[in-house]
């Protein structure tokens, strides 16, 4: 998935970068800088399974904070998954929404209506 300034998550709504985004807010939220200077955060959607087995939410912002991508990944981070189509994944959706709400509340991203 390429970096974009608006992202549509399959099965969910769209998101865009807030004009009020700040690098220090990303650091406060637990984002880390990778070797390319991008801000990356990987959250477990199934914490009881441990990091390597849990399905994950991975969010990456470019170093200039003008583009980002959101990925819902399998445990081994090899494939994108859809957590919204299976009713058994209700807990994963709740975890996902919790993490996204933090980003919205801290003015990192906004929803697209």
UniProtKB/TrEMBL annotation:
It comes from the Bacteria. SUPFAM superfamilies: Lp2179-like. It holds the Pfam family DUF1831. Gene3D superfamilies: Lp2179-like (3.30.1820.10). This is Cysteine desulfurase. It comes from Oenococcus oeni AWRIB429.
């Amino acid at each position: 998935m390429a970096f974009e300034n608006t992202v549509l998550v399959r099965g969910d709504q769209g998101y865009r970068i807030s004009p009020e985004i700040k690098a220090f807010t990303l650091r406060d939220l637990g984002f880390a800088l990778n070797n390319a200077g991008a801000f990356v955060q990987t959250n477990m959607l199934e914490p009881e399974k441990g990091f390597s087995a849990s399905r994950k939410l991975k969010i990456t912002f470019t170093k200039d904070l003008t583009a980002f991508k959101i990925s819902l990944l399998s445990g081994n981070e090899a494939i994108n998954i859809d957590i919204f189509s299976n009713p058994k994944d209700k807990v994963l959706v709740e975890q996902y929404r919790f993490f996204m709400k933090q980003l919205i509340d801290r003015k990192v991203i906004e929803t697209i209506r």
